[in-house]
From TrEMBL, chains A, B:
Subunit structure: Dimer.
Keyword match Transferase: no
Keyword list, A-Z: Copper, Disulfide bond, Metal-binding, Oxidoreductase, Secreted, Signal
Residues annotated as domain Plastocyanin-like: 42-152, 169-336, 437-570
Protein name per its UniProtKB record: L-ascorbate oxidase
Family assignment from sequence similarity: Belongs to the multicopper oxidase family.
Named cofactor requirement(s): Cu cation
Signal peptide positions on this chain: 1-23
NCBIfam families xref list: ascorbase
Catalysed reaction equations from the record: 4 L-ascorbate + O2 = 4 monodehydro-L-ascorbate radical + 2 H2O
Subcellular location: Secreted
Length: 592, 592
């Protein structure tokens, strides 16, 4: 048995490529089956030079980057080695056509994987692009359970842009020193205890708590603060992430954010970035010198190493939309053959002023679909949903609600509930298509601080059901929070779909006039879109993917207190559901 | 829905007595059904005046004490409100005859209860006595998930001892500031990181971290240490637990320990204690001035308030068997009408010297069954198992093993595996009945430090299977740990059974001669017995309870790294297993 176990252990750390066609890994012409053996477990790590327990895959934080080719089948055998916690992994941006049960959202597409169980995800990555995977049970993503999923084009297909330097990628995140259990407790306490601002910003899982604050303009990252003793630049464990480039070359840089709370701004000093793709879809190229990246979003940008090659340059990440209380996250753009330890002689780069929302809205409006490569939306929709997001007090608890429903999980996966007609698993009253506030009070003021005693919100888990093929518009309407003069950025992510972003607006959406501003010609396709303070965003999608799909704010503490919805479509065409996804709630076995 | 939820919320906190015969709650002649609605969730608490997150029931730590009457049926509806963790509750000391699926050990009697699920335990408390309930999934008990279960005699039956003052109870525990997740990570790391000594000792969930150290002989518990600012005696949140007594009266005091690691010694200064019951079984009374209480054990003692009534007295708890690094846990015996804030004028009481094991062995040997009230054991047994406990290194991990098998959980509840013949759920090779070490090396030296490279131990989850009615003897043999000159106390607890403690011995158990020292006349019946350093203990039980029952060390970090075994008996007479206990591992539904 010992020998057997040793072999198993060895296998766990070797992702095996079962079928490889001729050509390099990222330029195959035929699809392959990529098999991974993963173990989810705790890990003692110090991503920002402060010791903390993270949830890791195969002992790695961030979790290992997957490299696949469009059309490949991924087979991920996931062993849950957490002693008491269930787990599930969402494949963020993957459409899961025909495999909605492997979308990985706990209690929606599957039961949590129990401690000690092994669960096999198997699905096709049907479109090249930059995606993610991450824990999707309560706040496990915030514990570090996330990684990049990079899907390349097969040989024979070419990108609509060119670069001669190669591929680079950076996964951005914010980082908290408090455990997720304490964060979850605080969010579900009376009085409400918010998670607060993150302690650090990480680039590819590396940051420096409280160190960059002390960074002298022309000096090193070493500091005299006792907290920073270990995070001087000569400590390899705390060295910043390095992006090496050859002078004169152009690179494709993939950038994605798995932030808990923060909207991030990404900048490389002295360098422009040409945006060419977003969320795995091509966009008409445009040039920026700093890039807004909201949680759940990914970008591809072209970067040319065209600056003075005798020095290195800072890569900097800053918080947008919330008063910054977190130092700039730093990495190094290394001009080869300079040493990676050659620190740039300049101060840490700053983005736009945190509350200059006009800048962010303007950048968001620059996106349009790449002509000839992305489809245009249907010119009309079958229905319009208006989602009014409000912060409410429900039974003393501070919650977020959409049209007065604050989402709570069902104990039964909703996909199985639809498939097996387990109607008692969730609220059978459909959630409101329009804000009840508009009916009760036509003059609902999105700029006013709501009176928590009159919000009338309640907990619920009803589902928006669409007919197969239906074209649905959703307008997400922002409001003032319970804090006077405060409205926040919310990046909404849709599982199982890309949607067209038809337009953004300030103030209250007006169904008669606001629609006139829509871009129906070449709106960008995305899976995650930001709603800006006191504004709205309009999206359109086609309900053509039989399944049950969450659509929710990607800010983890917001989702945890209810800022989410669930859509079901094609429920008469749901596929057979594998047994391994069942066993909880109403899907326990009944016939032994 | 809001009103409905409010009613549910109100109900959650009212344990409802569905059937009450004539007479007081603790003196009913007829059995009742007691129904409880419980919610398991996180709670911010400061049991020793240091803030920590605990796992609580209905917001209480320790969890609420259950008061029942012999023959009652308990119905506990348990809602798991933990965001990511499963949970299960073991009813420690309850035999679960006919209901082995409600014993509450995760992956043995049931699947963990998933987040959001409600699980209903329903079983008869068939014998008066002092019992416990506690979490039995990984180390959740250590997070504070435990409470007392007190079962009284029905009216018409009388105790074989008398007291005129009433009933008192104290639940003892040790307390760690590190989270269980961090403890679990350390125990499963290379190199091994032990949990270390506890920070505090709690009496009925109350202690004072680092305060009692500074206690002046004639003064108050206030201290000048910054850590102790909040834990002076005038802070009600940090006030010690109080046992109020009327001078001259005699009380029945129930004492139980849910300690993580520590063997405890309980003492009330100036007062003798007359021991009358242990683990719910009557013993011949004997008098002590300090009482050893091992984790998982309970005692009833008679206490007479016969001292100077003008003062109060310290109740003190100290660590035995490990070099103390934890201050004495303190409560107050309050002589009414003195104020409960009248602190005793004396230093904290001390127990015996920590490593005077002879004192502990001598006290353990004082126990004998109460004549006429407890049965004698069968005079012979059908088989003898010898369990050699060794500390081992397996694949680099520090583990405990029994006969070279270090227990790992199955992903499938073993009870269901036996019932449904899911033989791939666990190792089909039965674990060794005798130590392989004795075969390989007849001169195995229990006093020597084992060479971790030659222990040949391996991970496993095989089961000891007994025929129904079989009489089984088990000898648990202690050894030296991997630390030179170190052997530790291990309290072994059996689920589903009381067993006779036939005898204790020093050194190596000798099947030919050691048995001659057995007490077969009136050995005490117990469910938890301590094995002393470099010694052995012999027990006898009758395999007459169809089910699958863990028998393991009750020291949580020892169990976590493998110091446990599982017994199955009457496997052809296993009852129908409720669906709610299934759904994990191989018990997922297959026919939808």
């Amino acid at each position: 048995m010992c020998l057997y176990r040793t072999i198993i252990l060895l296998l766990l750390f070797i992702p095996s490529l079962f079928f490889l066609a001729a050509g390099g890994r990222d330029s195959r012409a035929e699809a392959a089956v990529l098999e991974y053996d993963w173990v989810v477990g705790y890990l003692a790590a110090a991503p920002d030079c402060v010791q903390k327990m993270v949830i890791a895959i195969n002992g790695q934080f961030p979790a290992p980057t997957i490299h696949a080719v469009e059309g490949d089948t991924l087979v991920v055998k996931l062993k849950n080695n957490l002693p008491t916690e269930g787990v599930s992994i969402h494949w963020h941006g993957i459409h899961q056509r025909g495999t909605p049960f492997y979308d990985g959202s706990a209690f929606i597409s599957q039961c949590p994987i129990n401690p000690g169980e092994t669960f096999t995800y198997k699905f096709v990555v049907d479109r090249a692009g930059t995606y993610f995977y991450h824990g999707h049970l309560a706040m496990q993503r915030v514990a570090g359970l996330f990684g990049l999923l990079i899907v390349s084009l097969p040989s024979g297909k070419t990108e609509p842009f060119s670069y001669d330097g190669g591929d680079l990628s950076v996964l951005l995140s914010d980082w908290y020193h408090k455990s997720i259990y304490q964060q979850e407790l605080g969010l579900s306490s009376i009085p409400f205890q918010f998670v607060g601002e993150p302690q650090s910003l990480l680039i590819q899982g590396r940051g420096k708590y409280n160190c960059s604050l002390d960074l002298p303009p022309g000096g090193s990252a070493a500091s005299s603060s006792p907290d920073c003793l270990q995070c001087n630049a000569t400590n390899p464990a705390c060295a910043p992430f390095v992006l090496p480039v050859q002078p004169g070359k152009t690179y494709r840089l993939r950038i994605g954010s798995m932030a808990t709370l923060s909207s991030l701004n990404f900048k490389i000093e002295n360098h422009n970035l040409t945006v060419v793709a977003a969320d795995g879809r091509y966009v008409e190229p445009f040039v920026v010198d700093n890039l807004d990246v909201y949680s759940g979003q990914s970008y591809s940008v072209l970067l040319t190493a065209n600056q003075d090659p005798t020095q290195n340059y800072w890569v900097g990440v800053n918080v947008r939309g919330r008063k910054p209380a977190t130092p700039t996250g730093l990495a190094i753009l290394q001009y080869l053959p300079n040493s990676e330890r050659l620190l740039p002689p300049t101060p840490a780069p700053m983005g736009p002023v945190w509350n200059d929302f006009a800048v962010s809205v303007a950048q968001a409006q620059k996106y349009s679909a790449k002509k000839g490569l992305e489809s245009a939306p249907p010119t009309t929709s079958h229905k319009l949903l208006i989602f009014l997001m409000t912060q409410s007090i429900i039974n003393g608890y501070t919650r977020w609600a959409v049209n007065n429903i604050s989402q709570v999980p069902s104990a039964t996966p909703l996909l199985a509930a639809f498939k097996f007609k387990l109607w008692s698993a969730f609220d059978q009253t459909p959630p409101p298509r329009r804000p009840p506030q508009y009916t009760n009070n036509k003059h609902f003021d999105i700029f006013a601080t709501p009176n928590p005693n009159t919000t009338h919100a309640s907990l619920g888990n009803g589902v928006y059901v669409s007919k197969l093929g239906e074209v649905v518009d959703i307008v997400i309407q922002n409001t003032n929070t319970l804090v006077p003069n405060n409205s926040e950025i919310h990046p909404w992510h849709f599982h199982g779909h890309d949607f067209w972003v038809l337009g953004y607006g300030e103030g209250v959406f007006d169904p008669r006039n606001s629609t006139k501003t829509y871009n129906l010609l070449n709106p960008p396709l995305r899976n995650t879109v930001a709603v800006f303070p006191y504004g709205w965003v309009a999206i359109r999608f086609i309900a053509d993917n039989p399944g049950v799909w969450p659509f929710h704010c990607h800010v983890e503490p917001h989702l945890f207190v209810g800022m989410g919805t669930v859509f079901a479509e094609g429920i008469h065409k749901l596929p057979h559901i594998p047994s391994q996804t069942l066993g909880c709630g109403l899907t326990k076995p009944t016939r032994w």
